[in-house]
Design goal:
heterodimer; A: mainly beta; seven-stranded mixed β-sheet; B: mainly beta; 0% helix
């Protein structure tokens, strides 16, 4: 299957700072990527859909000014958590679909964010 | 009512047993159905993907979809301790968005 990577795998930051998470499709070009958040022992919740070359589409209740998404190329999307607070501590996961393949979505390994 | 319901478990079975997992969904517009496996602190890994009613088999895994009942299942034969993980059903809505069930934690005991 297709490979999606994320960097960093874990990050600890202080309250009030910003953190950038990268999501890359390694062996295919992804016009669309998705960002999810997962709290402990809970399922994945879609935060936003990232479209290459255009603005991201955010799910209801997700603050677009707090979670900045940039999809600058066909293989890279970034999520920046601005002015992070302890309640933003979570597991952030991206996914992408290979447009040359089927409808399967392939997920990255996730980034664990801890805000102190 | 959640769009996708899944029993959280945990489901504990002895090694070699059949693991039976299921989800129900409410939106008849859903057309594509997937099962993911997620180990602790890792991203989900796609196991099975199907779009039609009926059975689809891949090795020890069988996915079953019953669109008339809005019910999907995953069966794992000859379960192994390495199958211990959380299993998530996911159903695709419009715009390629996936709606996930809450996940079922499975423990296969040697």
């Amino acid at each position: 299957g297709a490979v999606v990577s994320q960097h960093p795998s874990r990050v600890i930051c202080k309250s009030g700072t910003s953190v950038k998470i990268e999501c890359r499709s390694l062996d295919f070009q992804a016009t669309t990527m998705f960002w999810y958040r997962q709290f402990p022992k809970q399922s994945l919740m879609l935060m936003a859909t990232s479209n290459e070359g255009s603005k991201a589409t955010y799910e209801q209740g997700v603050e677009k000014d707090k979670f900045l998404i940039n999809h600058a190329s066909l293989t890279l999307s970034t999520l920046t958590v601005t002015s992070a607070h302890p309640e933003d501590s979570s597991f952030y996961i991206c996914s992408a679909r290979d447009p040359q393949g089927g409808r399967e979505q392939y997920f990255g390994p996730g980034t664990r964010l801890t805000v102190t | 009512q959640k769009e996708v319901e899944q029993d959280p478990g945990p489901l504990s079975v002895p090694e070699g047993a059949i693991v039976s997992l299921n989800c129900t969904y409410s939106n008849s517009a859903f057309q594509y159905f997937m099962w993911y496996r997620q180990y602790s602190r890792k991203g989900p890994e796609l196991l099975m993907y199907t779009y039609s009613s009926g059975n689809k088999e891949d090795g020890r895994f069988t996915a079953q979809v019953d669109k008339s009942s809005k019910y999907i299942s995953l069966f794992i034969r000859d379960s192994q301790p390495s199958d211990s993980a959380t299993y998530l059903c996911a159903i695709e809505a419009a715009g390629n968005k996936l709606t996930f069930g809450g996940g079922t934690r499975v423990l296969v005991k040697p």
